[in-house]
């Protein structure tokens, strides 16, 4: 949710890193972001769950990768 919210607001996501147990927004705002970005017009709860699970895994792997660390890559992969 935090990544999607910042993406919509035009923030540079290359420097953002999720902090465990941090809470932003409310459940309705969170659901609205997922519905907006999941790519399915009328998703089921299962489809939303799969979308959030996949997005979470990808973002966690991205944060853990040295190749996505802005301190390591400097400005060579801007926007990657």
Automatic annotation (TrEMBL):
InterPro entries referenced in this protein's UniProt entry, alphabetically = RNF213
Q: Name one GO biological process term.
A: sprouting angiogenesis
GO MF entries: ATP hydrolysis activity; ubiquitin-protein transferase activity
In terms of superkingdom, the source organism counts as: Eukaryota
Which GO terms of the cellular component aspect does the record hold?
A: cytosol; membrane; nucleolus
Could you tell me what this protein is called?
RN213 ligase
